[in-house]
Structures are given as C-alpha cells and as structure tokens.
Write a structure and sequence with these properties.
about 400 residues, alpha/beta, Aspartate Aminotransferase, domain 1, 2 domains, seven-stranded mixed β-sheet
Amino acid sequence: MSILDIDFVRNQFPAFSEPSLQGQAFFENAGGSYTCKPVIDRLFRFYTQRKVQPYAPYEASTLGGAEMDEARLRLAAMMGVDTDELSFGPSTTQNTYVLAQAFRQFMSPGDAIVVTNQDHEANSGPWRRLADDGIEVREWMLDPQTGHLDPADLENLLDDKVRLVCFPHCSNVVGEINPVSQITSIAHAAGAFVCVDGVSYAPHGFPNVGELGPDIYLFSSYKTYGPHQGVMVIRRALGERLPNQGHYFNAGDLYKRFTPAGPDHAQIAASAGMADYVDLLCDHHGGPDTGAAARAGFVHDLMRAHEVALLQPLLDAVKDRNDVRLIGPAQAEGRAPTVALQLNRAAEPVAAELVQHGIMAGGGDFYAVRALEALGVDPESGVLRLSFTHYTSQAEVTQLMDALDHVL
C-alpha cells in the first residue's frame, strides 16, 4: 500500500501556509477541520461568478446549478449510493431534527426506537423527544468502564415493536469505531431501520454507505475539509416511505423530501471540492483509475493507515499515566484519532495552558454529556480532547506529547 505523502497533503490546505497559524499544531479537528483548497476555490468562484438563483437558462445560473448537481453526483458515487439518496442541509443537527419529525408522523404510540448514551446529543436528543408522542425509547448503554457498545446488548433490546436503531459510527469522546455492518444486520433482522451518525468517523475517510448497509447516514462537511453543511444519505426504501417534510410539490424528489430549508447554493456547489480533493490524493498516490467508490476507498485506507501510525505513540504516552484516564480503546487500529482524557482537574483551563506550547485543543463536554455521565466523568469538568486527522504530521504529534508532559 502507498504511504501518505504528508507534504503533498499539507500543500492542499492553505491553513498550513497561513502566517497567523505558524507554530501552532491543530488538535481540535473533531470540532471542525481545516478546509482544502479545492473547496475554497469553488466557493470563491461561485460567489464571484455564479451567485445568482441557479437552474435558470442564462449561463451564470446554469453553471451554478450544474455545480450543485455535481456535488451530489460525485459525493453519492464515492459513498456507493444513488445520487438522489444524498442531500444537503444546514447542519447534521438540523437534518436529524427533520428526520425525527418524519418518524414522529411515521410511527405510532407503542412503537419503539433504540438510542445510545454514547452519542453526541445531535443523534440522541431529537429521537428521545419522540417519547412525548408515546414512542417507547430504549437505551443501548455503553460499558461505564470502557465506553464500548456491545452488539449483544442491542439484541436484548430488539423485538417487533422497534422501528429504528440510532447509533454513532464513532463517538466523539470514546473514539472507538463501532461495527456498522454487524449492528445494521442485527437491527435489520429484527425489522428495524438504522440511522448512523458518521460525524466523528467521516473525517477519517469517506465511508461506503452502500456496503455498510444503514438506511440513514449523516455527517458534517465542515469536518471533512469542506463548507458548513450537513450531508445526509437516506436510502430509497426508507426515504420514499417516510412522510415528506419539504414543500408538497417537491415530494417526488427524494433529495428534497427532508430538506425543508432553502439550500445554501454556494456551499453545496463548493462541496464538490471534497471530491476534487479525494481525486487529487488518489491520483498522486497511484490509486485506481476508475470507480468513484473504489477511489474513495483507496484514499480512506491511505488516511487511516497514516492516522493509526501517528495515533499509537500518543495512546502509549497517555494510557498508563496516573494523572489521566484515557477514554476508549488503547489500540489505534480500533479507534479514530479522537483522544479524550479525564483529568484530575477541569479540562478547559488545561487546554488554555496548551496554547502556550503551540497546541490548539479543546476542553469540555463536547455535547456528549450523556456519554460522559455514563463514564463517571463530571461534565462540568469535562475532558481534554486531542483530535487530529490525516493532514497532521509526526512533528506535530511530538509537539503535542512534549506539551502534555509540561502541562500535566
């Protein structure tokens, strides 16, 4: 397998040549990534040349609409789904809320859903509120010591009343990568649909949703090097059954059924830059010539291999310290490079101390209050979260570990 050319990668991100950011290592990527140049270029072009209502017959409008269509076409192909099964919304939180309203109409009192306490609140709160309409909410609980979600525990929650199972591909504090295909198979065998929150996983390689098998997959493009949009895949078999949440005259278009807000034309068009970036990496590293999903899969594996190599030394450096508790697995292969540490003091001031050592990181609850409480962590104290992605260098990880030695 090719080894990621980190210099080539970093040359695709203007942030790494920005004078105001020099000397600072960015370790809060789970909150939002740097933006790649192809996205910035497309956004600039749209705002300067095509900032008109799209899909009209004059050229600026036609080109603008074509770029919006291109974004859906290429991202859907990368993720192994049909073009109209992918849609954009203002954020993943908003997309989840809209979907919950559709299920509110779709389900009946006495039906049940399964949620976890490992989730970010965006993929938990909207579903839990269905209890107000008589929907039974069953909680798939994480292990309070390890944070692990055991699929066997899910099986004990399933029966013919369960219509939907919601869980994260990867928790934004636990970091463990959940076996989506296995969990989806268990849920489908019980007759339930599946909704996966991919916000904390997708930054580490675009997933092939078609192969993984869930009915809904959600992530945020501002964490995958793109603009501030929520990307939502709803497979046709479910999307055409759920009640339309958009304008009544758009009910026949699957990609419009669950986006009632007017789309952000420029940001949708700019999202095609994420596909441009994947293609750049694939071609530079000698990946396959054809097949969008195969090319995206090659880049996914390239990113993950780099991340795993950098992550293990960091895990080794913190896992046996007496002054911190590592949340989640200590082996890099089974987790994303999102490392949450419980400290013996409040985390946010420690993040502020790291700034003095050129480290940009975060402290707090990160909207994972239920998960932290289940793990015995006081959300007021929070955790120190150190998160990176494939554009992080070995030198930056070394800088981080040296900084941790100083502040801890």
